[in-house]
Amino acid sequence: MAQFKDLSDFHHLISDLFPTMDAREAMEAYGLNEEQLAFYEAHGYLSHVQILDDHQIEYLRKDLTELMQSEQSNNELFYEFHLNESEDENSVLFHSLGHWRVSLGFHDILWNPRFVVAAYQLLGERSVRFWHDQLFCKPAYHGGVVAWHQDYSYWTRTIPMQHLTCWVGLDDARVDNGCLHYIPGSHKWDLLDRTNLAGSMDGLMDFLSEDQKAAFESAVAIEMPKGYGTFHHPLLVHGSYENRSHRPRRAFVLNVFADNTYAASDEPLLNGVPQVPRGQKLEGRFFPLLYSTTTID
Ligand SMILES: O=C(O)CCC(=O)C(=O)O
């Protein structure tokens, strides 16, 4: 893993892990088709989009191993670092934010053409700006849950709601190792209260109507090969169960919003990031533009 001091200084690919392409070439090579876009619109998610090849998976796995060392808990470049967010040693959930500043691979993944092109299209062909990254890793046998939630319930400090999440597995994701589950169509629900992310699966149930509870009977398990990504809407309800298998379930998440998103609070938006006054546009060092419409006109 590269030992740069703070990779947020660089708003472009640094390594040769991903190909350098202009916006048009990237769209021609990796653009989503009409059917995929219509599926996202109807269901609130789009899964099975290839994001990484085998070499890129191996590279990111090596970086991940170093990022998960306990010494990293002293690294102030992370926005958050939890060796076990659940606080129960029998159900471990490693969770971090801000590792794009620390690791070359997790920095460059933000500019991966396969990712940025899909994000641009799913945001309704609007320029894509980085919000933050996340790692969610569950060790074999005792990996913890991620409670049912809507992402935007944690993000109301940024407006308007024009956000998008991409989850990518670094292991094959299956029901037995705690893959993501979605409630299709829940992106059309109103914003619900936020719950504790780790610990218990069902905190959200207290806030749901009977019809909404019934929708959980149609939950979909997102089983995907490693290196594939699933995109979801900021209101889509999702969560994941324990890892009961002998395999780890390692994943990273990229959270973006359309350009022209603003701070809705005077509180710091992310730990260690200078405060952005309420009403000011999110841009600059910590919120780089990843794919711009102007470059493909
Ligand atoms: O990795 C998981 O199990 C949960 C991920 C998640 O909540 C998200 O992608 O928003």
The domain count comes to: 1
Q: If you compute it from the alpha carbons, what radius of gyration comes out, rounded to the nearest whole angstrom? A: 18 Å
Number of beta-strand segments:
14
Measured distance between first and last alpha carbons = 37 Å
Q: What structural class results from the helix and strand content?
A: alpha+beta
Assign the CATH topology: Jelly Rolls
- Rounded mean pLDDT score: 95
The oligomeric state is single chain
C-alpha geometry = globular
- CATH architecture call: Sandwich
Uncertain segments of ≥5 residues (pLDDT<50)? Answer: none
Which hetero compounds are present in the coordinates?
2-oxoglutaric acid
Assign the CATH superfamily. Answer: q2cbj1_9rhob like domain
Helical content band: 10-25%
> Secondary-structure element order, as H and E?
HHEHEEHHEEEEEHEEEEEE
Main sheet?
Answer: 8 strands, antiparallel
Structural topology:
Blueprint: H1 23-30, H2 34-43, E1 45-50, H3 54-67, E2 80-82, E3 94-97, H4 104-108, H5 113-122, E4 128-138, E5 146-149, E6 158-159, E7 163-169, E8 180-182, H6 210-215, E9 220-221, E10 228-232, E11 238-240, E12 249-258, E13 262-263, E14 289-291
Antiparallel strand pairs: 1-10, 2-3, 3-4, 4-12, 4-14, 5-11, 6-13, 7-10, 7-12, 8-9, 8-11
Helix pairs in contact: 1-5
2-oxoglutaric acid binds next to strand 7, strand 11 and strand 12.
What does this protein look like?
- The model has no long low-confidence stretch (mean pLDDT 95).
- With 297 residues, the protein is an alpha+beta fold.
- The chain starts with 22 loop residues before the first helix and ends in a 6-residue tail after the last strand.
- Strands 1, 2, 3, 4, 7, 10, 12 and 14 form an 8-stranded antiparallel sheet that branches.
- The protein is 18% helix and 22% strand.
- The protein has helices at residues 23-30, 34-43, 54-67, 104-108, 113-122, 210-215, and strands at 45-50, 80-82, 94-97, 128-138, 146-149, 158-159, 163-169, 180-182, 220-221, 228-232, 238-240, 249-258, 262-263, 289-291.
- The chain has one domain (35-69, 80-295): Jelly Rolls.
- It binds 2-oxoglutaric acid.
- 2-oxoglutaric acid (AKG) binds at residues 136, 146, 151, 165, 167, 180, 238, 240, 251, 253.
